[in-house]
Specification:
Length: 122
């Protein structure tokens, strides 16, 4: 079992940003914030920021976007779906991971996008 602990990643939260066990990686929601935790404005920049934070978290358990098999997108505006679809196609090769897309009332720190993921490496 491998785990990424809050202390190892600088997180002040009581959960692991990423956790790996039995070839699977489970990544807690990665927000559309910059490296300093500030919300990123704009649709494409916000999507890029959320993926950057997701990539960082995957890295803590020695995984990459290539290992992702399922994502869940939480967005504060469901109209982001078309932009998110185009973005998804640009970051994942076919066959792309399964994905859920959910509108929420709000996200922490004023973020507009949060992405959680399940990864697997044989």
């Amino acid at each position: 079992m491998t785990t990424s602990t809050p202390a190892a990643t600088g997180s002040a939260h009581p959960y692991s940003p990423a956790y790996a066990v039995a070839g699977f990686g489970f990544v807690s929601g990665a927000l559309s914030v910059d490296e300093n935790g500030r919300a990123v404005a704009g649709v494409e920049p916000a999507l890029d920021a959320a993926v950057a934070r997701l990539t960082e978290r995957l890295g803590t358990i020695d995984m990459t976007l290539d290992d992702v098999v399922k994502t869940t997108y939480f967005v504060t505006d469901v109209s982001l779906r078309d932009a998110a679809n185009r973005h998804y196609e640009s970051i994942f090769a076919a066959p792309r991971p399964a994905r859920s897309f959910v509108e929420v009332a709000a996200l922490p720190y004023g973020a507009t996008v949060e992405i959680e993921a399940i990864a697997h490496r044989a």
